[in-house]
Amino acid sequence: MPVTALPEFPTNIPTHPLLIVDYELLKNGDETEMDKLWKAATSLGFWYLKNHGANEDVEKMFDMGAETMNLPMEEKMKYEDEGFSFGYKFAGASAVDASGEPDKAEYLNIAKDDVLAWPKQARRSYPYTVNNRMESTIIPFVTKSIEVNNVLLAIFNSKLGLPEGTLCKLHFGEYSGCEARTIKAPKNLPVGKQAIGAHTDFGSLSFLHNRLGGLQVLPPGVEEWQYVKPVPGHAICNVGDALAMLSGGILRSNIHRVVPPPGAQAAFERWSQVFFTRPVNSVMLRPLSDESSLISEAVRKLSDEQREALTPRVTAYDWVSRRKKLRMIKNRAGPETWMASGGTELGRA
Ligand SMILES: O=C(O)CCC(=O)C(=O)O
Ligand SMILES: [Fe+2]
């Protein structure tokens, strides 16, 4: 489906405005732009990123996603995600709420470790539609996404007053949950259904590309979900739980969800491409108070409950595994399973 054939996001629906950050300016060390990024990451935790240079790679990812999701179900299920995160997740495998309502989105997660090891296999195998496009599409998209998220991480490292390279070291040199995700939600979903239930992202940074509306955030202090409007060529970036924890809550991992696209857009399939940067598996998730007075000061001001929420005493691997596992309907015992699947949202979900 050419992008131009898709209906516009309706003009009569309120949206949550995000700050627009220019990646080229960030890369050139522009102070004003870095301040804008900091403001976005410490308030809502979401921002648009323009001039990121990944648009052509993203277009190819949309093609790869369509080729993959169009495979017969039997073929996709050969690559089912059996635990951690990598592989195929069929629509309806995860709950969207405590009642156990099934999700409506299917997706395929491709481990960064497999992409960087190609043509060797590091973590698992994938459908031929992925293998065939590894060199032309997936390696370029993942390489570019890593580069972008590294620039963002280095800025956060400096603004948090951490010794140079601290955050970078926590994200490289070992296997991790970093992954590229291609997502499809069907067209004509009834209003009120959720393609993806409310969640905070599990890792550190997400680099998201979508074309239709449907992504919503619940901003702090607000009771109503608000749409984030897709803007052509602009990525939607956000902070996840791991970075919220490492920063002692200074960086915000905000809750979000995916509902049917609004207005005339609802009649179209909804596709997204994401790259998730996550700490390496063995990293203990906790505020880096020993390494930054800014972080230790922020942690000192938290309530006991907030401090506990940011200090789960588990590794990055266990954090992703638990959240993923407890959202799966096959592991659901009752509403308590959903309640136990939460992240750093401090009861907001
Ligand atoms: O598809 C989208 O717009 C958002 C997807 C998302 O939140 C996720 O995969 O974590
Ligand atoms: Fe998300």
From TrEMBL:
Show the SUPFAM superfamilies listed in the entry. Answer: Clavaminate synthase-like
Q: Name one GO molecular function term.
A: metal ion binding
Transmembrane stretches, by residue range? Answer: none
Q: Which residues form the Fe2OG dioxygenase domain?
A: 174-279
Q: Which residues form a coiled coil?
A: none
Family under the similarity heading: Belongs to the iron/ascorbate-dependent oxidoreductase family.
What protein name does the entry list? Answer: Fe2OG dioxygenase domain-containing protein
